Amino acid sequence: MKKRDLRIVFMGTPEFAVGTLKLLVENQYQIVGVITAPDKPAGRGQKLHQSDVKKYALSQNLRLLQPTNLKDDEFLNELKSLNANVQIVVAFRMLPEVVWSMPEYGTFNLHASLLPDYRGAAPIHWAIINGEEKTGVTTFFIDEKIDTGAIILQKEVTIKEDETVGTLHDELQQIGSELVIETLQLIGADKVTTTIQSKVEQPKTAFKLHKENCQIDWNQSLNAIYNKIRGLNPFPAAWTNLKTKDETLMVKLFAVDKEEIAHSDAVGTIITTKTDLKVSVQGGYLIIKEMQLPGKRKMDIRSLLNGFNFSEDDKML
After folding, report:
1. Which residues contact 42 (CB under 8 A, 6 or more apart)?
2. Cα 260 from chain centroid (whole Å)
3. Helix, strand or coil for residue 187?
4. What's the whole-number mean pLDDT along residues 159-188?
5. What would the DSSP string read from start to end of 84-147?
6. Which helix (H) or strand (E) holds 59?
């Protein structure tokens, strides 16, 4: 059987997608175009910010498209002119059928979960927040719905008890990139077999993260709070209100540990020594190792305690 000559269009935006694009370049695949999000204003000066994928694509002199509207005739004509026969999507956005149905060998997506679980925008975060012991990556052919297409390949990963979204992101980025290469090898050899996603009555969902669902609820159990902070560390970070005698501050929590022990302290009570800070919750204490005060940089707790004095009435709300 003759091996297919693959002409690839790659679509992605954040740093997670760069790992795959980089591996494609290193393996000398023919990338005829890269599609990423338009530049956006960011920071205090509102300067235009290039996506991570754009920065890498420019460094490799790859053909770059940044459409604002994926149904725009000018964009569609330009995409068609690239004459790609396969499209790869990694952390981009929902594609209209006119785009995903264009290439001869299809459009496939790399998703950072074991589908059908955790369809949606933030699968890595929610797997940790929900206390999962395993997750993984999936490649699948895109269809008209979000993350529902026929599965090509999957790879499972164990979630460690002290895992953060940062460490898991990096592991899944590497494993996912390798899975994309395996998927392309199957497509190139015309040996792809797919599995239709099983129907789940109550699928676990990777909801988009926003300010409200990143707030800590101190009435939850110790493990639930511990998992939530890990699942948001280092980005976008879990936050809470710190009530002092003078004001209420919105603080972010990063590295934490836990102490499972019976106690009679009220939920949210702050207990400090010269070097340690812990908060009482149901089932024990949350030990805070890194915290960020408003307008300050993230600090380890020992350094923070050198310059910030907690009173016995201060509380986490």
Report:
1. 48, 49
2. 29
3. helix
4. 98
5. -SEEEEES--PPPHHHHT-STT-EEEEESS-TTTTEES-HHHHHHHTT-SEEEEEEEE--SSSS
6. helix 52-59
The pLDDT of residue 312 is 86
* Helix, strand and coil in the chain, % to nearest 5: 25, 30, 45
Say if residue 2's pLDDT is above 70.
Answer: no
Helix H or strand E segment including 228: helix 222-230
Instruction: Please count the CA atoms within 13 angstroms of the CA of 136 that sit on its side-chain side.
Output: 13
Q: Are 186 and 152 in contact (CB under 8 A)?
A: yes
Q: What are the phi and psi torsion angles at 89 (to 5°)?
A: -120, 125
Do the Cβ atoms of 241 and 316 come closer than 8 Å?
Answer: yes
Which domains are present in the chain?
8-188 (3.40.50.170), 212-316 (3.10.25.10)
Contacts of 136 (CB under 8 A, 6+ apart): 113, 114, 154, 155, 156, 157, 172, 175
Which tokens hold the place of 246?
A: 């003078």
CB neighbours of residue 141 within 10 Å: 17
**Residues 6+ positions from 150 with CB-CB distance below 8 Å:** 140, 141, 143, 194, 195, 196, 197
Using only C-alpha atoms, the chain has a radius of gyration, in whole angstroms, of 23
CA atoms lying within 13 Å on the CB side of residue 155: 18
pTM of the model: 0.95
Q: Which residues pair with 8 in a beta bridge?
A: 31, 86
Burial environment of residue 130 by CB neighbours within 10 A (0 to 12, 13 to 18, 19 or more): middle
Q: What is the pLDDT of residues 13-72, one digit of tens each?
A: 999 999 999 999 999 999 999 999 999 887 777 788 999 999 999 999 999 999 999 999
Q: At what angle do helices 52-59 and 15-26 cross, to 10 degrees?
A: 20
